[in-house]
Amino acid sequence: MSDFAIFQTGGKQYRVQKGDVIKVEKLNADGKIEFDQVLMLGDKIGTPAVDGAKVIAEVVEQKRADKVLVFKKKRRQNYRRTKGHRQFITVLKITDIKG
Description:
four-stranded antiparallel sheet; mainly beta; 62% strand
C-alpha cells in the first residue's frame, strides 16, 4: 500500500490519500465507487494506468458548487451582460487505495 495515488475521472486528475474528501464532476452513483484508472500509485507510474490499482471512495453527498459569475462588457457601448452558473458536483471521501 502506498501513501497517495493519482486517478482520473471526469477528464480531470486528482491526487488523493486515504481519508481525503474531494469534489469531482457529477457521478451517477451512491454508496461506494471504485476508480480503476489510477495513473500513479506512490512511486509506480502507469503506462497509462497502473495494473490492478484501485481507489475506493464513498459518496458523501450530491450537490451544486458555488456560483460562478460571467460578466461581459464592452467599454463605451453601454453593453453589459451578467450570467451565473452552478456546476453539479459529487463529494467523495477516499476510504482505501489498493495496489
